[in-house]
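Q: Give me the 3D complex with nicotinamide-adenine-dinucleotide.
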Amino acid sequence: MRDPTQLYAQPPFKEQKQPWPGLARDMEPRPDHGEDSYQGSNRLAGRKALITGGDSGIGRAAAIAYAREGADVAINYLPDEEPDAQAVVELIRQAGRKAVALPGDIRDEGFCRRLIDQAVEQLGGLDILVNNAARQQSHASILDISNEQFDWTLKTNLYAMFWITKAAVPHMPPGSAIINTSSVTTYDPPVNLLDYSMTKAGIVNFSKGLAKQLIEKGVRVNAVAPGPFWTPLQVAGGQTMENLKTFGKDTPMGRPGQPAEIAPLYVQLASTEASYVTGQVFGASGGNGQP
Ligand code: NAD
Ligand code: MG
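A: Here is the predicted complex, encoded as structure tokens.
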């Protein structure tokens, strides 16, 4: 038993800025993805999972947990993130599971189709899809968001999710699960994340609608809506420096979450134990937030 308010790093945080997309390796303090703590109990034995953005942050925490629960895991990430990705590949292998590394930019529809083809081929099938990759850049005003930035955010967060899911569905047998990462910003959009927040709201809507379609195939679809988590997204342009220094302080918990603290939700939603759970949104926001 431990008091959750006393776990992990507390604000204030050191000023830090990395070029996008950022590496977990270079954050101070280093995020906790469950490397030294997550213990599996065979809840996903024999399952085959693809996680986008599986190199760092919330996606890495899900990848570690899935592997330790007995799943083979493919991760997608950007080529610049190879050092983070290799660390995850190593952790999946240490768990005794197959690791598949599939770098590439999901803003490209052709790549999204190849990503699914390669994941299916190398895993020998696909029954868990986690759409988790995202673009988040802080802009004070709508006037500062160029069409190029707007397009970048929507391509990454919405188009890619649509393309990847569309390619994946024909391969997914009954019992499969799709989990999309939304955000607390769906319900309370911050002043500086206009384009990002609208995509995160779209992800909730997409998840609920798709759940109604895919249950006919025996496939469940849910979304996770995290609050503030200590990940590269936040130090690579995702926050103002002021927000970063006090990151998570405005939650009742008084600190940000660490990726390890949200991985159990991704396990639960993928597991057959949650067989009646579909079309739902699960939050982890340190006491704020809705779904
Ligand atoms: P992260 O930076 O560790 O993960 C995001 C990943 O997205 C990157 O690792 C990168 O691999 C991937 N990505 C971005 N653009 C890509 C592209 N064009 N092609 C391929 N991959 C691309 O940060 P995170 O916070 O763990 O983010 C994971 C998810 O959690 C995102 O959907 C994010 O919106 C969501 N989220 C995060 C927070 C938070 O506070 N950290 C809060 C709410 C929601
Ligand atoms: Mg990353």
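A quick observation: The longest strand covers residues 220-226.
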